[in-house]
Specification:
The protein has a domain at 129-441: Glycosidases (TIM Barrel), CATH 3.20.20. It is built from 19 helices and 17 strands. The chain is globular and about 75 Å long. It has 643 residues and is of the alpha/beta class. The strands form four sheets. It has an eight-stranded parallel β-barrel with strand order 6-9-10-11-12-13-14-15. A five-stranded mixed sheet has the order 1-2-4-3-5, covered by helices on one side. The structure holds beta-D-glucopyranuronic acid. Beta-D-glucopyranuronic acid is lined by residues 143-144, 192-193, 270, 309, 348-349, 376. Keywords: Hydrolase, Signal. Residues 1-20 form the signal peptide.
Length: 643
């Protein structure tokens, strides 16, 4: 009797876990087949096995053959065709990984309700490297992580035995499936502010366990490295890149890594930035530092991804200009396996920035764009802000064809729903989809994500898609409209602190440095009469941004110090326009919450409640932003705050 009761309880618990809508399944919520679908392939690789298993379990259509064919399109591409006579489907690819991507494409079509009876698709990724950058520390804290602790549970990985706990394996299988389903092919697993311990043999063995798992999903592992590792880990007296002992140390370390992980991706490096060590400590250039690592990695086909997020070495120079100052003369001096990774904007992942002009100035070095999926400056995992429109805006200035890769700072954590906010999952999804194909529209991505993640019901899809599409502009409006930037509270970058001035920090970390509000007006003069930052832009953007009459209003206060009574395009004054934007942002946040409140019939209880809670916070925060900023700026404008 007792046993039966316990069994029943256990069964109930299992059922509950299996069907709980806690967001842990991300967008991978396909209905299982009652019978396995007929999937055939001669490809014996593990990757093809995964593709077969995914389709056999979740594909509800006609039989599918997976065919590896040297003549098929691109390295990672795939072709999907339907045989008109019997409806059978063929996925053809040059490599097994393409077969896996093709399988996920098929499931995406099915799960987002697209027609699947007459498919004729050929796909290739736009850029070669589509990489997540995890800012995860070895103690499992996550820099700018808003979804719990790191997903890498180092204690549950046994490097000597090459195993991990079953629970971790299950969780990371979802991670791999999710990434492969959107074409992500690399993962830098640790923080750019890297601990030298990452290169300890103990950890290299653990990283191997991850790499062995990721490989079958087409994902390569990369590591962030601390430039001073030869000292901290190797006991050397210097980390000077021209020192023979240092060079040998890196070569040996790299060899050790490749012995464990033959397809290791390479190193990501933050050097001489925000207190991190680098070649500059020895009066060497970034190129000398990068090339030393590049030489160690080259025999194994590894990459050095060197970040250009460097400032603070040019006293007095406008911070947004410093990356160009630092790197323009080094263009052409990097070894061929070095990539320069540059944030989309010249400052730091603000809700809106003009594009980073380094993309205009670097002509001979392969470049990757670094986007930030974790919403450090966009309400973190508390606000619904869909980032695809922001990234599309960036791609309208920087052609993805000039990039070799796109990196995204991940928003994952060990929260059940991975990303803190159910809607923040959409940003992970959109990152992968856009890195694969930047021509996809934000609407389409939102549409397919919503359908896979929630429901196909148009009574849900249409209003929520509209909310997602409006959300980034709303965030800009309630936080920092018209080109304002970096007026966040120090350290956590969440709430507003326009009055912020902290003598103990560099001036570039103080909000007052960025808005420069005074009795005459507000904004940062970066024109040819100011810091001349406009001159770093290619023509015609240099002159468009330089002229207050042609500068787009969304960048106005980024490039100009503007009088409070300046006439805006709609005839209102700058002050009135500022008030209007802040008010609009708040009204939008309220509208989003209102729309969500009507979605109860279409969403499971748990996700409905969790998102409702977040929406209420978003409204409160939006009001706080508006009130704090307008009241503070009013002390300079001395004009009435309009409602
Ligand atoms: C800023 C973050 C900081 C990062 C830095 C970086 O506030 O935590 O370490 O960027 O990208 O956005 O290196």
């Amino acid at each position: 009797m007792k046993k039966t009761f316990l069994t029943a309880l256990l069964m109930a618990a299992i059922t509950c876990v299996a069907y709980a809508e806690d967001g842990s399944r991300l967008w991978l919520r396909s209905q299982r087949n009652s019978d396995l679908c007929e999937i055939t392939t001669k490809d014996k690789s593990n990757t093809a096995k995964i593709a077969t298993r995914e389709l056999a379990t979740y594909w509800h259509g006609k039989p599918v053959s997976l065919i590896k064919d040297k003549t098929a399109t691109g390295e990672e591409g795939f072709e999907i065709t339907t045989d008109k006579s019997n409806g059978h489907i063929t996925i053809k690819a040059k490599n097994s990984c393409g077969l896996l991507y093709g399988a996920y494409e098929l499931l995406r079509l099915q799960d987002s309700g697209m027609p699947v009876d007459n498919i004729n698709i050929k796909e290739n990724p736009a850029v070669k490297y589509r990489i997540l950058n995890h800012w995860d520390n070895l103690d499992r804290s996550v820099e700018r992580g808003y979804a719990g602790l790191s997903i890498w549970k180092w204690d549950e990985i046994n490097g000597d035995k090459g195993t991990m706990s079953l629970a971790l394996k299950e969780r990371l299988t979802t991670y791999c499936r999710a990434n492969a389903s959107i074409g992500i092919n690399g993962s830098v697993i640790n923080n750019v502010n890297a601990s030298p311990k990452m290169l300890n043999t103990l950890y290299i063995k653990k990283v191997k366990v991850l790499a062995d798992m990721f490989r079958d999903y087409g994902i390569k592992v990369y590591l962030s490295v601390n430039f001073a590792s030869p000292m901290a880990e190797g006991g050397l007296k210097t980390a000077d890149p021209l020192n023979e002992g240092v060079r040998t140390w890196w070569k040996n370390k790299v060899n050790e890594i490749y012995k464990e992980i033959p397809d290791f991706g390479g190193f990501l490096v933050k050097a001489n930035s925000e207190g991190q060590p680098g070649p500059g400590d020895y009066h060497r250039t970034h190129a000398e530092g990068a090339n030393m690592l590049a030489e160690a990695l080259a025999p194994h086909g590894g990459l050095v991804i060197w970040r250009s997020f460097v400032y603070g070495n040019h006293e007095g120079e406008d911070r947004v200009m410093q990356a160009v100052t630092e790197f323009e003369d080094l263009d052409g001096k990097f070894n061929s396996n070095v990539i320069l990774q540059t944030k989309n904007g010249p400052l730091d992942f603000q809700p809106r920035e003009p594009y980073a002009p380094l993309f205009d100035q670097i002509k001979h070095t392969p470049m990757m764009a670094e986007l930030q999926i974790t919403q450090e400056y966009l309400g973190q995992s508390r606000h619904l802000v869909y980032l695809a429109p922001m990234w599309k805006e960036f791609f309208s200035f920087v052609n993805p064809k000039q990039l070799i890769g796109i990196a995204g700072v991940a928003n994952t954590g060990d929260d059940a729903n991975w990303c803190g906010h159910h809607f923040s999952q959409a940003n992970w999804y959109a990152f992968g989809r856009l890195a694969w194909d930047p021509t996809l529209s934000s609407e389409q991505i939102a549409d397919e994500w919503l359908k896979q993640t929630f429901t196909h019901d148009t009574a849900f899809i249409n209003p929520m898609k509209e909310v997602m599409m409006s959300s980034r502009e709303a965030c800009v409006d309630y936080m920092m409209p018209l080109g304002l930037h970096h007026i966040f509270k120090a350290d956590h970058h969440y709430g507003p602190e326009p009055q912020g001035f902290y003598p103990k920090y560099p001036i570039e970390w103080c909000p007052v440095y960025y808005h420069k509000a005074d009795s005459t007006g507000i904004g940062f003069d970066r024109t040819m009469n100011g810091t001349k930052a406009v001159s770093q832009y290619r023509h015609p953007f240099d002159s468009i941004y330089n002229d207050i009459n042609t500068c787009p209003e969304e960048y106005l206060l980024w490039f100009h110090h503007v009088s409070w009574n300046h006439k805006m395009k709609d005839g209102t004054t700058l002050w009135q326009s500022l008030c209007a934007h802040y008010n609009r942002g708040v009204a939008e946040a309220k509208r989003f919450a209102e729309t969500w409140s009507k979605m109860e019939p279409y969403v499971d209880r748990q996700r409905f409640m969790e998102v409702s809670q977040r929406m209420a916070e978003q409204v409160e925060n939006a009001e706080e932003w508006r009130d704090t900023c307008l009241k503070y700026f009013q002390t300079f404008s001395r004009q009435e705050i309009t409602k």
